[in-house]
Amino acid sequence: MMTTNEGIGTRPSRQAGVLEEATDAGDAPTTEVGPIEVRGLTMQYGPLVVMKDLSFRVRRGEIFVIMGGSGSGKSTLMRHMIGLQEPAEGSILFEGVDFLGADVKTRRDILRRMGVLYQNGALWSGLTLAENVALPLEEYTDLDAEAIGEIASLKLALVGLKGFGSFYPSEISGGMRKRAALARATAVDPEVLFFDEPSSGLDPITASRLDDLILQLRASFGTTVVVVSHDLASIFKIADRALFLDIKQKTMTALGTPQELRENPPSEEVRQFLTRSSDAGPPTGTEAHPDESHPPARQSP
Ligand SMILES: Nc1ncnc2c1ncn2[C@@H]1O[C@H](COP(=O)(O)OP(=O)(O)OP(=O)(O)O)[C@@H](O)[C@H]1O
Ligand SMILES: [Mg+2]
Question: Does the global pTM surpass 0.85?
Fold first, then answer.
């Protein structure tokens, strides 16, 4: 992973002026130095340089969106930020602690403070929703089964799934599965929540409800949220600040509020990305879902 090859593509100079200026801009709720800092990061798969020269801080309590076209490296960046992938160059600091230099216990402590929803992260199909939500509680806490059961119910209720604990993932809609996964990711009250493409596979209304839930979560618990997204409606609705990964330049070319980046785009790519007339969304399309406003009525087989 530590190769120095440049890989494919050219290496155009960074639009430093624009970017540095935008770096400190933004409307995040607090100016406090945030829990995560990315310093001079280069990400590679073997000789393939995905992104280089990434430097930014996520502020405490903000909703920070990583945006960019398909294949620009959004998911790869998220995996670096949670310590799953090793930087080819540079470092990631969580509360000032470098993942790479950290011992096993420190890494575990850091991971315990993070909640993660992967892009294709599914619930365990053989477990009920309550059992899925209980998993991180069993792994990271010493609570007894009864307490875990109560917390699992509470977490499911917080995402609007009260009474669905005994359901299996196959018995609920796509939007409900995302919310159940959110309940699981927040089970141990993470300080930072990572969410890769919350709206993928959801119809616009269901996606918008999930965005509401993310906003509520931040408002209620002050959770810092890092969201990977290419969905414009969602970006404009939830992002305090958004980072743009430019696939051609192989680096970040914008960081700021979506509004200011749209009004004053630092590059043509950013302008195009933020003013697309339609957001086609992921090719998987929309999943049908039952009316979720009614209490659950289990159908007998
Ligand atoms: N495990 C891997 N091994 C080799 N290359 C990979 C691997 N995962 C991703 N890549 C490559 O790295 C680049 C960035 O991929 P990544 O999945 O991070 O992009 P993305 O922005 O999340 O895309 P999408 O919007 O489609 O989810 C792509 O060129 C991809 O082909
Ligand atoms: Mg991705």
Answer: no
